[in-house]
Specification:
The structure is a single chain. The protein is an alpha+beta fold. Helix content is about 30%, strand content about 30%. The chain contains 2 helices and 6 strands. It has a 4-stranded mixed beta sheet with strand order 3-5-6-4.
């Protein structure tokens, strides 16, 4: 089963498919987000809040999160260490 983790507001990503998590403040990150939005590859998971992390996925999708990269990293590490299931999911 894939390792899934919450990136804020109940939105979940497959941790195994993440390539990088970067701050949106740099010019290259802004350019990546702008191009992804233009190409339809951006997934906005901020619920209208300020973008604080840009998550780049293996399939060139770009996920925008309202959580800091450090917060996401700690959630991913906690998830990996705990081995807990996400509520509502079942193993098949």
């Amino acid at each position: 089963m894939s390792s899934l983790a919450n990136i804020g507001f109940g939105n979940i990503v497959n941790v195994e498919r993440i390539v990088a998590i970067v701050s949106p403040d740099s010019a290259p990150a802004k350019r990546i987000v702008k191009l992804a939005k233009a190409d339809g590859r951006a997934i906005d998971a901020t619920h209208g809040r300020k973008v604080k992390a840009v998550i780049m996925m293996e399939n060139n999708q770009v996920v925008l999160s309202a959580l800091m990269p450090e917060t996401l990293l700690s959630r991913f590490n906690d998830r990996k260490n705990d081995g807990q299931d996400i509520p509502g999911e079942t193993d098949e």
